[in-house]
Amino acid sequence: MAQEYLSAAQGDRYGRFVADPTPEELEKFFFLDAAALKEARDKRRFHNRLGWSIQWGTVRMLGTFLTDSGPADVPQVVVEYVAEQLGIADVSVAKLYGDRPQTPYEHASKIRTMLGYREFSAAEDEVAAFIASRVRKSRDSRRELFDRAVLWLIEHRVLLPGITTLSRLVTGGLFAGRRTPLRRWS
């Protein structure tokens, strides 16, 4: 398996919330700017306003959309923080988001365009070059390279690929970036 070098924690947190975001993270990723507020308020129902806004912040923080699970996999503190900005008193309406299954996907598509996110396939060569550069300039382990690649993707507004895809790219970059061939020890 390509990701066998990853720790269990790395696998568990890839594209997911593993803890409540800090107040600083809430403000950085889930504070709705004027454009986001306008877009959210254009939704007719409270659950769609809330769901759209949670998707907007989630992709900014995690590099992926929660199109299948929706707000169910989002910490309550996120739901409450976003609901407060939207003036939604009953946060339980978040459970209704995705009752129409295509809605989260339509919202994700709109957010992707609005924020300028790219699919991984459009940036694969760039991230491969980043990994190879890190290999040449540092002594990062595969685990560290993987984490740095995830941060690079998020910072460059590239949607996370499947974990296997990225772990294979890191392993490939490890060998592509070496100046000297690996020695085999017998």
Distinct helical segment count: 9
Q: Roughly what percent helix? A: 55-70%
Uncertain stretches: 177-186
Total strand count, please? 0
Mean pLDDT across all residues, rounded?
89
Radius of gyration: 19 Å
Element layout with pairings:
Elements: H1 8-13, H2 23-30, H3 34-41, H4 46-62, H5 76-86, H6 102-115, H7 120-137, H8 142-155, H9 163-176
Give a structural overview.
With 186 residues, the protein is mainly alpha-helical. The chain is built from 9 helices and no strands. It has helices at residues 8-13, 23-30, 34-41, 46-62, 76-86, 102-115, 120-137, 142-155, 163-176. Helix 4 (46-62) packs across helix 5. The protein is elongated. The two termini are 24 Å apart. Mean pLDDT is 89; it is low at 177-186.
Give a short overview.
The protein is an all-alpha fold.
Keywords:
9 helices, 186 residues, single chain, 0% strand, mainly alpha
